[in-house]
From TrEMBL:
Residue stretches in coiled coil: none
Source organism of the structure: Syntrophorhabdus aromaticivorans
Domain Diphthamide synthase: 7-164
Domain of life: Bacteria
Transmembrane segments: none
InterPro entries: Diphthami_syn_dom, Rossmann-like_a/b/a_fold
Name used for this protein in its record: ATP pyrophosphatase
One Pfam family from the record: Diphthami_syn_2
Length: 170
């Protein structure tokens, strides 16, 4: 049996991070670290503004260690690259990212990973968002809505478990 490829997962704490982690693991990757970029105080994630305690709880539930790196928006890329360099010493040669369709972010991921000699893996790239939510529900993750984007979902969704019942997915 071939040895699994070791990877880190760029972790926002959101459903796309969870689904990309799951899909990478199902494809044979050994994800040995969740990498989260936090604000300068280390209290909240840059991506969704989640409290660091939420990300730590997710890491514990997934049994995958969390590496949280503090950064300003000005030092984000530099700190991200430093963090990846540290975990590369553990044999990491790939990074898992939950991006779906933001080409600018994909280009950033590819540029940064190339500079580090890491292969970027984007298992959700260009997949239909509603279909991804259906996959997320089918995998049977336990997920509670703790933040919403008012362009898509109002505050009435906060605190609800994502179960597939009553969700706005056509």
């Amino acid at each position: 049996m071939a040895e699994k490829i070791k990877a880190f997962c760029s972790w926002s704490g959101g459903k796309e991070s969870a689904l990309s982690l799951y899909m990478a693991q199902q494809s044979g990757f050994e994800v040995t670290s969740l990498l989260t970029m936090a604000n300068e105080e280390g209290t909240h994630s840059h991506s969704h503004g989640f409290d660091s305690s939420v990300l730590k709880a997710q890491s514990e539930a997934l049994r995958v260690p969390l590496m949280q790196r503090k950064a300003s928006w000005q030092t984000y890329e530099e700190e991200f690259m430093k963090a990846v360099s540290v975990i590369q010493d553990e044999g990491i040669c790939a990074g898992i990212f939950g991006d779906i369709d933001l080409i600018e972010h994909r280009q950033w991921v590819e540029r940064v990973c190339s500079a580090l000699g890491v292969t970027p893996i984007l298992p959700l790239w260009l997949q239909d968002r509603e279909e991804l939510l259906r996959k997320f529900i089918k995998v049977d993750f336990k997920s509670i809505v703790i933040a919403t984007d008012s362009r898509f979902m109002g505050e009435e969704w906060l605190g609800r478990e994502i179960t597939g019942k009553g969700w706005p997915i056509g």
